[in-house]
Amino acid sequence: MMNTATTSNTPPATFADDNVSEAARLIPIEEVMSRSGMRRTAIYARVKAATFPAPAKVGSSSRWLSTEVDEWVRAVVASRPKAKVA
Hints:
It is a single chain. The chain has 4 helices and 3 strands. With 86 residues, the chain is of the alpha+beta class. The protein has a domain of 56 residues: Multidrug-efflux Transporter Regulator, Chain: A, Domain 2 (Orthogonal Bundle). The longest helix has 14 residues. It is elongated and about 55 Å long.
């Protein structure tokens, strides 16, 4: 008997959102805190204010898309004032 899972020509599942790449992972609040440098309360306050990526619910847990958190960090760094060279 042939195993259809290994012989199928069906392409692998992909994410519908264009912002999601193969390197994207769903990460817990502890990792979000580490990557962002913010505490839990600050993260949820910014989520509520729509200035930080919202989490996805996985069961009763909240998880963030790693690429969205990383993009937020890059945007914060890019928006900081540039130091003036004397």
